[in-house]
Amino acid sequence: MSELYRLTVREASAALTAGELTSVALTEALLARMSAVEPTVQAFLTKTGEQALAAARIADAERRPDHGPLHGIPLAIKDVICTEGVRTTCGSAILETFVPPYSATVVQRLEAAGAISLGKLNCDEFAMGSSTENSAYHVTRNPWDPERVPGGSSGGSAAVVAASMAPASLGTDTGGSIRQPAALCGVSGLKPTYGRVSRFGLVAYGSSLDQIGPLAWTAADLALVLQVIAGHDSRDGTSAATPVPDYTAALTGDVRGLRVGVPREYFVEGMEPGVEAATREAIAVLAAQGAELVEVSLPYTKYALPTYYIIAPAEASANLARFDGVRYGPREQGESMWEEIELTRGRRFGAEVRRRIMLGTYALSAGYYDAYYKRAQQVRTLIKRDFEQVFAQVDVLAAPTSPTVAFKVGQRLDDPLAMYLSDVCTLPINLAGVPALVVPCGFSEGLPVGLQLIGRPFEEATLLRAGDAYQRLTDWHTRRPTL
Q1: Do strands 212-216 and 259-263 pair parallel, antiparallel, or not at all (unpaired)?
Q2: Over the stretch 34-45, which tens digit does the pLDDT of each residue have?
Q3: What angle do CA 443, 135, 105 make, to 5 degrees?
Q4: Which single residue of 18, 143, 327, 332 has CA 20 to 30 Å from 95?
Q5: Is the pLDDT of residue 1 over 60?
Q6: 135-163 confidence digits (pLDDT tens)
Q7: Using an 8 Å Cβ cutoff, are 84 and 100 in contact?
């Protein structure tokens, strides 16, 4: 079996179950691949190769016929998710030395399923960004073109899969941070319904928006990972006690009769022609297989960007108040406690994080709360209502993920508004709390494009069914960059 590092989760699992492959051999192949391409891609912040090999040996020794499909499968974790005994920096200098004393629920569930961690992945600082250029440590590069960004904030999570250093990864999505990098790196990614996956152990950015989800090559692989990490968690007050279905059983390959809404507002002005063409061609593939296309409207979509950039920074302002250099990470020295806190935050928070803290603090301040934050929450309700009304007519929505392909490193750093517009097609989904899936659907100017499928709350199975059916008919998810 050649090029083991190219195996998908499902392929690797089948080979392990059949006794054709060992977890040690697979892990060694991925670590060798990491040695070869990580200097170019720079997806990792912390590597745990030795621990991974030790875990692989245990997985091989303990393998039984009734083990689940993730037993002995290596993957990697975004560095905003706590891992016991392994440094968790959130891409920030303010947490440079922080080692959590516990693991997030998703990590615990993966470990219980026999999955193996290869390390922690780079991201925009505290998940605030769309390009992974805001990390305090280094810029992650897009495996399709190292001169371009991988997207963000889960850029490391998308790049590690695209570069074949791991068959799957975990990312987080607050306004598009799984889906946009998945699209820009040519892999599949899923943002589950808010509450579907536990947020316990996730370092919060926007508590009413954040959701953990998987990235991999295929929708079928995403189903395998989601099956393990989904479900109620009593330690997370936002976790939903909604039953978890069998996601793999939903992958029938059949979309006949599926009503697919095409929202006109998502084909925004300024969208690159190649992106729109690839997206519309992908939608036509679903129609050719018996899906029913329905043009729909989500009129409050145009307010999603300003709404998000009031609510998310406001929540970030509250959440990041705990980082003061006293309890977590390194501390700058000063003549008083207050001076030390001021120096620590001033020197160790990056520019984008400081910008969002100031925006959020302003929006929550006396005299401005009603004018900004309260009104933004009211508009959020209208955006959510848009989705509820549309989902009375259709089963899923099909739309672009990003208005452009991956842009060049440094191209938008001096223009925050242009950077924020990268997420114009993904933000409404987080405000509404509904699930969304991205699958590769073509190329524009030689760079990947992703189709975004949006579903009703807790109907990830329908999205995975549609994405899997599309991937059975196309080969975009089999394309690999040359590194």
Answers
A1: unpaired
A2: 999 999 999 999
A3: 90
A4: 143
A5: no
A6: 999 999 999 999 999 999 999 999 999 99
A7: yes
* Sign of the dihedral through C-alpha 174, 177, 182, 184: positive
pLDDT the model gives residue 2: 62
Residue 70 pLDDT > 90:
yes
Number of residues written out for the chain: 483
State the CB neighbour count (10 A cutoff) for residue 379.
18
User: How do strand 259-263 and strand 396-400 relate by DSSP bridges?
Assistant: parallel
Q: What class does CATH assign to 4-265+276-296+389-478?
A: alpha beta
Among candidate residues 230, 193, 209, 197, the one with its CA nearest the CA of residue 126: 209
CA angle at 351 for the pair 347 and 355, rounded to the nearest 5°: 115
β-sheet bridge partners, residue 189: 215, 438
Helix/strand/coil percentages in the chain, nearest 5: 45, 15, 40
Residue whose tokens read 């006690």: 241
Terminal-residue alpha carbon distance, the chain: 21
For the stretch 239-268, pLDDT in tens is 999 999 999 999 999 999 999 999 999 998
443 membership: H or E segment, kind and range: strand 436-444
Rounded to an integer, what distance in angstroms lies between the CA atom of residue 345 and that of residue 323?
8
Asked about 35 being catalytic, the answer comes back as no
Q: How far apart are CA 224 and CA 166, in angstroms?
A: 15
Q: Which one of 23, 103, 153, 317 is the catalytic residue?
A: 153
Give the residue extent of every domain in the chain. 4-265+276-296+389-478
- CA 213, 428, 469, 247 torsion-angle sign: positive
**Tokens representing residue 295 in the block:** 């043009």
What is the predicted pLDDT for the residue at 257?
96
- Catalytic annotation, pick one of 177, 239, 317, 402: 177
Is 153 among the residues known to form the active site? Answer: yes
For the question of whether the overall pTM of this predicted structure is more than 0.85, the answer is yes
Is 164 catalytic? The answer is no
Note the pLDDT of residue 349: 93
Give the orientation angle of helix 375-390 with respect to helix 304-319, to 10 degrees: 120
For 241-292, give the DSSP string.
-PPP--TGGG--S--TT-EEEEEGGGS-TT--HHHHHHHHHHHHHHHHTTPE
Residue 452 bridge partners (DSSP)? 399, 438
Q: What is the C-alpha separation between 456 and 395, in angstroms, rounded?
A: 7
- What pLDDT is recorded for position 206? 96
